[in-house]
Design goal:
Elements: H1 3-7, E1 15-17, H2 30-38, E2 44-47, E3 51-56, E4 61-66, E5 75-84, E6 87-96, H3 100-119
Parallel strand pairs: 1-6
Antiparallel strand pairs: 2-3, 3-4, 4-5, 5-6
Length: 130
């Protein structure tokens, strides 16, 4: 069972969403982020129609990269889990090098996805989760 499935059973409390211009994903560009993250040992890569999703269980991070043809391309969404006491936090950062209005739509769509996760999650970390 992947860690992203476990995430669905955890509390997702405050969500930090940075505007595309203020993103601090740790890389200066989409291309650099993709190259480094894709080649990180232990990651799982899956391909969808509009996105490439890379899960890094070592850092509890899901990276979502737009593919060519997506309106906001090139854009990358970094969602990272952290546990503080009994609470699980989800931080989201976005770097979007595409057209601003499409970047804004991308941000909104991920905010909606995060809200859906929060609604379906219990309020505490299950026993045995570090």
């Amino acid at each position: 069972m992947g860690w992203s499935r476990i995430l669905r059973g955890l509390a997702v409390l405050p969500v930090l969403c940075l505007s595309p211009a203020a993103a601090q994903i740790g890389y200066s560009s989409y291309a650099t982020a993709y190259d480094v993250v894709f080649h990180t040992p232990g990651v799982t890569v899956s391909y969808g129609h509009d996105f490439i999703v890379i899960e890094d269980p070592a850092t509890l991070t899901v990276w979502t990269f737009t593919q060519p043809g997506h309106q906001a391309h090139p854009a990358v969404v970094k969602r990272q889990i952290s546990v503080v006491g009994d609470n699980v936090h989800l931080a989201m950062e976005i770097l979007c090098e595409g057209v601003r209005r499409f970047c804004d739509r991308l941000v909104s769509s991920f905010e909606e996805r995060n809200a859906e996760m929060v609604q379906g999650a219990p309020l505490r970390v299950p026993m045995g989760v570090p």
